[in-house]
Q: What sequence folds into this?
């Protein structure tokens, strides 16, 4: 069989994955959803033909997204996840017995239901009793909710299609309003390397910096996202990203494959060209 | 024009670059050499259809390869470069007025001459009066030379074809013999992510560790090498990789685009799965 899934990382760069089987394809009310099985990456799914998560490296994205803020503030108990339909962020949150409530607001129920069926590696903790699933627009949810959160995880797609609002100034301002004083916002923050993601990265950073007392980025090696150099945003009015407050024993007990406390600090150290982009 | 250069990162993963022009192609006595111009990466060249260097991100590889050891031991004056036909490592070495002699031993003269013609961005310092070019087999050179070096830079291709010997135990042992007591060896050390490069990476590390008192790896984001997560090896009998002995003023004066002293330390901090591979 000689069947490839190809993603255009830019107009001039392609990344292709040999597939074993095209498991599922549907145009949902929001986006085109596909699940594949592959030789190199195991199962993976795409939205509008863009890689979201695969069995081989999803641990990197989800560990970095969740254990970074949980280490800065281990007293977090009430978490809001926006997006994150594959359940990987919820899975990492569920490792903490100290977390009491996880509200996940995902616009596209079909993504969640198919991930539960076809990608249990990421989705298997969505049935945890602490998890409340709400299928709604995240922008509207943060505008309307009366709840206050310790941690908001913006686990979005790229800022085109349904993910676009999750990179808007209004959305970030509403996140700030529903954040407790000691709260943290983390987000999927695109890549500094290729031009299109770089521009989105700079815009997101500028907005977050104008709203929160502290806004910075941290990075990880994610081989299946464009360029493999991926950023996360950290924003808070009171917490500092380099504060290691979580217990080493607890983190060690999770047997993570990527994140550790030294990686936490190292992920904040940026190459000169990325620092220069963030100053602009 | 709709012309692509495609590299197989594994049997099941392809990376493709849209090319403007195929500038040069030749089967040399050692390997197949091609130069291209591209929309996204500028000019680049390949050996046996594997990306070696491109104008967009070669700075990352060359800065990390050279400024890392020069920061650990700024007293280095006599340097041996094995391979490195594009001249990028020599260019970075030439920034240091303290370096008195650079011997570059490259097996394939055609690579050097075509890089001087078609890739002056990397090759333009090969004419520096401190640089001595020797077109010979690096394995034989380190076996026969009577010279002693402060720094040996193994700027090799992958361990297949002409680069194979530069990953052998005998070659590393001969490097150790021609290294001054305070000397350092750095090498292109493959990637931990995909299986084939991972196996080569583990083998190289095991050999270096059995020969030198200290052998470790450090990493960088290099988007056009397979997985984008690339390692360098550091080996020495007396020097420690985390020692920042170089002057911050000097490094700042170079206006580098990737490397800085904080990146130096952060590049030594490895994800858990990479640490586990190196313990094996």
A:
């Amino acid at each position: 069989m000689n069947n490839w899934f190809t993603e255009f990382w830019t107009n001039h760069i392609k990344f292709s994955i040999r597939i074993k089987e095209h498991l599922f394809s549907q145009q949902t009310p929001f986006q085109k959803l596909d699940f594949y099985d592959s030789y190199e990456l195991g199962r993976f799914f795409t939205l509008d033909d863009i890689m979201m998560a695969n069995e081989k490296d999803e641990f990197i994205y989800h560990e970095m997204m969740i254990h970074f803020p949980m280490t800065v503030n281990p007293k977090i108990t009430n978490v809001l996840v926006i997006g994150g339909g594959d359940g990987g962020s919820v899975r990492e949150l569920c490792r903490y017995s100290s977390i009491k409530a996880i509200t996940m607001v995902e616009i596209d129920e079909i993504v969640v239901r198919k991930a539960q069926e076809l990608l249990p590696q990421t989705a298997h903790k969505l049935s945890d009793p602490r998890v409340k699933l709400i299928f709604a627009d995240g922008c509207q949810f943060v505008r309307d909710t009366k709840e206050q959160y310790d941690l908001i995880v913006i686990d979005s797609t790229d800022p085109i299609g349904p993910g676009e609002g999750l990179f808007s100034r209004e959305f970030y301002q509403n996140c700030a309003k529903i954040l407790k004083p000691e709260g943290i916002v983390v987000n999927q923050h695109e890549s500094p390397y290729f031009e299109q993601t770089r521009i989105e990265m700079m815009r997101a950073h500028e907005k977050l910096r104008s709203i929160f007392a502290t806004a910075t980025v941290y990075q990880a090696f994610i081989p299946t996202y464009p360029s493999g150099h991926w950023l996360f945003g950290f924003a808070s009015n009171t917490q500092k990203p380099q504060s290691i407050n979580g217990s080493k024993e607890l983190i060690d007990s999770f047997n993570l494959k990527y994140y550790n406390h030294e990686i936490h600090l190292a992920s904040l150290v940026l190459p000169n060209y990325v620092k220069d982009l963030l100053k602009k």
